[in-house]
Amino acid sequence: MLADDVHEAIKALIMDHVLEPGARVSIDGLARQLGVSPTPVREALARLESAELVVKEPLRGYRTSPLLSREQLDDLYQFRLLIEPWAAARAAEHADAEGRERLEAEMRSCATPASDTYDSYKALAAHDTRFHVLVAELAGSAQVRRAFERTHCHLHVFRLHYDRGLGERTLAEHRRITRAVLDRDPVAAEAAMRGHLEAACYERLRPVSEEAGGPTQG
Amino acid sequence: MLADDVHEAIKALIMDHVLEPGARVSIDGLARQLGVSPTPVREALARLESAELVVKEPLRGYRTSPLLSREQLDDLYQFRLLIEPWAAARAAEHADAEGRERLEAEMRSCATPASDTYDSYKALAAHDTRFHVLVAELAGSAQVRRAFERTHCHLHVFRLHYDRGLGERTLAEHRRITRAVLDRDPVAAEAAMRGHLEAACYERLRPVSEEAGGPTQG
DNA sequence: ATCACTCAGATCGTGTAGGAAATTTCCTGT
DNA sequence: ACAGGAAATTTCCTACACGATCTGAGTGAT
Q: Which range of residues forms the domain containing residue B123?
């Protein structure tokens, strides 16, 4: 299916900063560049628009979504803090043997690359994406999983700064969440996920405003 | 923009049961029926696919999304219970004067029609949709609002049974939530929203399984 | 006689090519 | 330097061709 290939190609172009945030996406230009006719490009862009990866300006064409503002990133992490700790707790409660094995396999696949190359970073980011989706999946709630996926949070964070916040500490935090899930300890899983997100949030939002005391959720 | 009109037209067809759940959606058929060429129909269907209102089977066409199963409806309300009480609390904390006025206006617009006609039911359902979106909006979190809207929960519930669960009690519960928000009482707003959703949930899922005691969230 | 398989016609999704309308850009004239 | 207008680019839709899938009849086997 050509339209699907085009869809993936454009997503990759956005992911790799070839199409920068806010850049105009010419429908004919992409068609020529990819060697196809405009029709499948239109279909792909229509889907990307529903996913909010591009925005449409009638009679003027498409642009890639702009970078998240400070407030929007804050809001994004607030949302993640609302659903992901909950998902981690439910995963600890409900994950079956096959699910726990998948979680262990994901962690094994990322023993410790941690080189400083761009590719290494991308691999780690891909692991991070898979890990969080997997936790949402193990929670047994398709709604929560889809809600998480539709935030495209890794894409947004990646576009903002693809050099910060992922490293050995991320893996250590993932291991802690994994351990709690495997131990069937919902309280520990929830706390570990909350801590993981708050660490990433503070890391990325630094300097962070010192309004009131205590973390986002209390 | 023709594609936008087609998009809205198809959404309306789904909403009004003209296109039944799981029904095949012919691309050429719709084009003839709407008096346009297939291209804008394809674009509209691509967007509806991203919104999960239709599903695509490659080389075989589109179908409207199937009805929600009991488990999926349960999952949907679990998700609503996760985000909407939170949103109600944040709305009570953060809503400004203009927001509170909009909430009051929405409630005024629905004094008490409550006739038993189909149109009356549709009007009430539309109010219900607007009310819940408005609460999410007043919470100040675009992520939560979008996550809620993307569930299309009113569409799904409407398709399952468009005759149950909406009535004077719904309005009374909305009033209670509104009062708590206007009183800037987050705890009461959260509790009222939780009670509202649980009432709707139990009403719709009856007979409900009697696993353990107490409501969904504990 | 009934059932299963095969093959042909029809139907529909998919991609291409071309033309109309609108916007943007560039040039010219004041 | 600024306003007006025309050319060029681009979006958007239509019309058409190709290929795959589904439907039905017909044939053969059990």
A: 70-205
